[in-house]
């Protein structure tokens, strides 16, 4: 890449940063009483870390133009999945669409997590992370969607064009973190509901959804950092409990979730971006972190997400799945069943066969840094 091209790319990145502060992109501030994770103006994690959004953006772009980022193919096809309209009582089917978008079908309920069908995850169409794989389910092949959960307001998780299309087509219930519903309504996605960490809502019959802590941050632009809430979700049904972690680092909240919801049929966990680890560790799980989290949670089955579609960190395209395989091998008898599905791949999740014991030899104390493991194989686990 020539010097002029590199300069243009850096200029574009900085322009996006300035655009991020504009009122049309900045999310409204949440207003409410203080709590153990809200000081009356800004939300924070249980364990706080320094915000380095600008520094990280500049570093990513510099690494992109200097060749320090791992290799990604320009394009890889997916095998589109054609899901059933519903699954029956007792059944749990998961389809990996892309990135953090998972179709969860359980007890005749269809749930989408952080839906993204756009070509780019960016405030503008002409620049920003562009997909390397198509969605694993074509939008027109989606079954009726009853519920959408949105973990936070970053562009790769709160994709407004996709949400507008889903709202118009299915009129689903939409649940997200405190402060986000107001922004969504202003952007043409009406009817969303805000919930807090540990707040539960009834979905249908004896099916309940609970917002749970995550270790991340929020920002739609440069002037609204930490102003709306980020979270994960736990879905409790007669057929089992499902945990969707959202975008998160490994943190002391995980034992808290395990203690409140002791029998996970499925845990959906992020495995990237992992590099550079010093920058990513507070807010993004690596594959090794995710295996450690699945062990700690006692999940009967775990599923990887947040990899393989958009290049965000310095990881190469295959690194997250390679690292997952290595982490599982290193975990030995503590290793959970952990799937890394390709875009479009779907599986039936087996029932919980029995309570996995929370063996102290399989994980450290709450808040302890998990092991970090990487590998070199190039095929999916």
What descriptive keywords fit this protein?
381 residues; alpha/beta; Metallo-beta-lactamase, Chain A; 7-stranded mixed sheet; 18% strand; globular; disordered N terminus; disordered C terminus
Compose a concise summary of this entry.
This protein has 381 residues and is an alpha/beta fold. It has helices at 3-19, 53-66, 160-170, 180-186, 253-260, 277-280, 287-297, 319-331, and strands at residues 92-98, 101-106, 109-113, 147-150, 173-177, 193-195, 200-204, 207-212, 232-237, 240-244, 264-270, 301-305, 337-339, 346-348. The radius of gyration is 19 Å and the shape is globular.
What does this structure look like?
This protein is of the alpha/beta class and 381 residues long. The protein has a single domain (92-362), classed as Metallo-beta-lactamase, Chain A. Helix content is 22%, strand content 18%. It has helices at residues 3-19, 53-66, 160-170, 180-186, 253-260, 277-280, 287-297, 319-331, and strands spanning 92-98, 101-106, 109-113, 147-150, 173-177, 193-195, 200-204, 207-212, 232-237, 240-244, 264-270, 301-305, 337-339, 346-348. The chain has a seven-stranded mixed β-sheet, with no helix packed on it. The chain has a seven-stranded mixed β-sheet with strand order 7-8-9-10-11-12-13, covered by helices on one side. α1 (3-19) packs antiparallel against α2 (53-66). The longest helix has 17 residues, at 3-19. Residues 1-8, 10-24 and 365-381 have low confidence and may be disordered.
């Amino acid at each position: 890449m020539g010097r002029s091209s590199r300069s243009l790319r850096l200029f574009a990145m900085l322009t996006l940063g300035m655009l991020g502060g504009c009122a049309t992109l900045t999310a409204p501030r949440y207003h409410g009483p203080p709590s153990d994770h809200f000081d009356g103006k800004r939300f924070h994690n249980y364990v706080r870390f320094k915000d380095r959004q600008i520094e990280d953006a500049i570093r990513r772009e510099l690494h992109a133009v200097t060749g320090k980022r791992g290799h990604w193919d320009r394009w890889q096809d997916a095998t589109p999945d054609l899901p059933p309209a519903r699954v029956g009582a007792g059944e749990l089917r998961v389809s990996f669409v892309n990135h953090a978008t998972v179709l969860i079908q359980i007890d005749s309920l269809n749930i989408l997590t952080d839906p993204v069908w756009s070509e780019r995850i960016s405030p503008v169409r002409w620049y920003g992370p562009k997909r390397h794989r198509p969605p694993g389910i074509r939008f027109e092949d989606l079954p009726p969607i009853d519920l959408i959960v949105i973990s936070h307001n970053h562009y790769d998780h709160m994709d407004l064009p996709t949400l507008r299309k889903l709202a118009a087509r299915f009129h689903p219930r939409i649940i997200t973190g405190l402060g986000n519903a107001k922004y969504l309504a202003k952007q043409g996605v009406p009817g969303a509901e805000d919930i807090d960490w540990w707040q539960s809502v009834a979905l249908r019959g004896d099916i309940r959804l609970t917002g749970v802590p995550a270790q991340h941050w929020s920002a739609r632009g440069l002037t609204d950092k930490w102003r709306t809430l980020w979270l994960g979700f736990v879905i409790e049904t007669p057929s089992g409990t499902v945990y969707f972690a959202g975008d998160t680092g490994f943190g002391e909240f995980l034992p808290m979730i395990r203690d409140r919801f002791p029998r996970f049929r499925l845990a959906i966990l992020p495995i990237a971006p992992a590099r550079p680890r010093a920058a990513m560790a507070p807010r993004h799980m690596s594959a090794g972190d995710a295996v450690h989290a699945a062990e700690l949670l006692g999940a009967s089955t775990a599923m990887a997400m947040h990899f393989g579609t958009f290049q965000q960190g310095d990881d190469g395209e295959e690194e997250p799945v390679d690292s997952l395989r290595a982490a599982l091998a290193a975990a030995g008898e503590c290793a959970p069943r952990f799937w890394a599905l390709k875009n479009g791949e779907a599986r039936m999740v087996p029932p919980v066969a029995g309570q996995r014991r929370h063996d102290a030899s399989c994980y450290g104390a709450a808040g302890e840094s998990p092991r970090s493991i990487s590998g070199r194989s190039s095929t999916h686990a």
